[in-house]
Amino acid sequence: MFKILFVLVSTLILHGPSIEVSGDNPNLWPFVEQQFSDWQVQSPINIKSQYAYNVNLTSLLYYRYWREDNSVQIKIGIKKKSLYISNKNKIRAHITGGPLFEKKYLFSRMYIHWNTEGKIGSEHQINSQGYTMEVQMVHFKREYKHYKNAKRYPDGICIISYFGKLSDGDNPLMSDFMTAVQSIQITGSTYILSTFNTHFKWLVDLAKNYCYYVYPGSITKPPFNQCVTWVVYENTFSISQAQLNILRSLIGINGQPLTSIKRRMIQPFNNRPLCHV
Fold first, then answer.
1. Residues of the signal sequence (predicted)?
2. Would you tell me how many other CB atoms lie within 10 Å of the CB of residue 142?
3. How far is the CA of 79 from the CAs of 127, 202, 258, in angstroms?
């Protein structure tokens, strides 16, 4: 049975085997729900590995993201002051497994954080290290029907975060994405339509990796609802200075450089659950 499952999930882009459990305590979050007071578990945070406990979870499963024959259709455009990637139609990609167990979360949108100068553009940190870029894939729980409604529930949203680090050379897997965002700027179009697999092949290797942190937190823009299960990957993708400069050169509808969604400052850890998979 295990061999059959392994072959199946490999075609759906899954992670590798889980890390051994430390303590194997089923009373820990996320195995059991936990209530938090207002403003207790805000995001982003500085993820310190010394505060994390290891848990034994199944692999996180991705559906309709990177398979060429059924990758979901997306819209890439400029919205107000930011670059915005969203689901295009009613057929959605989704994630399940891992800290989500059997619950399904549907893809809604993506946010990409970078800075107009300097080397740090991420919202989160790991062991006090910031990163050049942070990509956040936002999902909502299927039974809540849509993103706006899901924000009202403590388990309504799951956000997957990937970090980018500067490299000496271009990341060739990012070329289609860079061409797309440049074409929006040059032609003056508000958006282009494409598939997730076409423009985000540079994330697939990270999605296969099983080293990530999970914690309960909040959305990082007002009103900062505490409704998010955050999944933050340790490994990084590469991006060159030239590719970063392309993002920094993008101009919003107000004539000012895009800075993506405004980064929120690091929030107190407040002794919340933090697990490592």
1. 1-23
2. 14
3. 33, 23, 10
